[in-house]
Amino acid sequence: MLSFKNVVVLGAGVSGLTTAITLLRNGAKHVTVVGKDIPGDTSSQYASPKAGASIISFASVKDKRLQDIDRITLQEFRRLAIHEPESGVSYCPGVQYFEADDLPGEDSYWVRDLFQDYERLDKSVLPDGVKGGYRFVTFTANVPHYLGYLVKTLESLGGRLERGSFDSLQSAIDQYKDADTFINCTALGSYYLKDVQDHAMYGLRGQTVVVRAPHIKHQLYKDVGFYDQFCTYIIPRGDGTVVLGGTMDRGNNNTEPEPELTKAILKNCYKLHPYLTHHKGPDAFDIVSVNVGFRPGREGGIRLEKETKYRANGDRVTVCHNYGHSSHGYQSSWGSSDKVLQLLKDSHLSKL
């Protein structure tokens, strides 16, 4: 007998919506997603709409858990690209360069078994200053469109999306009296929930520039290592716009775009791929928007853990945590939700 019949998911980002859909597809009768921010909102604390999003992996060769999570996600995105292109997911070829000798460098080559048409680049074809790289085919998602697709899918399965916020898990448990299961997908909110207060969480500021460049069909990346503030990436969204980035800035809480960073992003992306402006220079970009969002970073990685809580009347409820996805929320989305499903199905498991 299923233990998760009536579920409330706290958090309406990509992780919360995906988890809700996974549970509905696997026997949950009633699922309500509750979010302070929901698709269509523009808060900088609501990171999901600000993503690129390219479906590549951030897992190192040693991180078997994240590798497994990413494999599951890639399988679902492959299905979406082939069978549900209306989702906003599509195949996209790409190239990734590395300037670092260590991470992510060699560790990232485990993905050769994951990506289609993987080819490690010969050093003779690498740009100046680049230590390594590979060519591959994976997926990109038109993020605003894809979030809309997730909402439609949720509702088509009988789920609900509503706006709401809580200062603790207990207050949500007390309000939704018929629910037997609660999923915590509150991302950075888990730092502030009174009965969670996960101080391993931290905001990772990202600033990106969306430009109009319908001629760009490839994604490109140049990383300088996991711990640097800057990385250069070019991600087409499939609708004629391209996301240029970017920053991974811990400790910077500025919610407004910083003009000097915008200039640096445009300059770096142009240097990597001058065809962006047809070789007309970094001042020739057709800028659509400049965005700031805070990724939900977490020391120790994603929290996938189950616990039991009680209502005042003694009724027992299950709480499952699924947050801390940092820069890989989309890449981890389906795999993490599958781990939540495993936790709920197996009474002997408390964490994954």
From TrEMBL:
Report the record's Gene Ontology biological process terms.
Answer: D-amino acid catabolic process
GO terms for MF: D-amino-acid oxidase activity; FAD binding
Q: Name one Pfam family in it.
A: DAO
Q: Cofactors per UniProt?
A: FAD
**List of residues binding FAD:** T186
Q: Does the keyword Thylakoid apply?
A: no
What positions does the entry give for D-dopa binding?
Y233, R295
Name all FAD dependent oxidoreductase domain ranges: 7-338
Gene3D superfamilies according to UniProt:
D-Amino Acid Oxidase, subunit A, domain 2 (3.30.9.10), NAD(P)-binding Rossmann-like Domain (3.40.50.720)
Report the family membership.
Answer: Belongs to the DAMOX/DASOX family.
Name-wise, this protein is FAD dependent oxidoreductase domain-containing protein
The species this protein was found in: Absidia glauca (Pin mould)
What is this organism's lineage? Eukaryota, Fungi, Fungi incertae sedis, Mucoromycota, Mucoromycotina
Q: Which gene encodes it?
A: ABSGL_04164.1 scaffold 5159
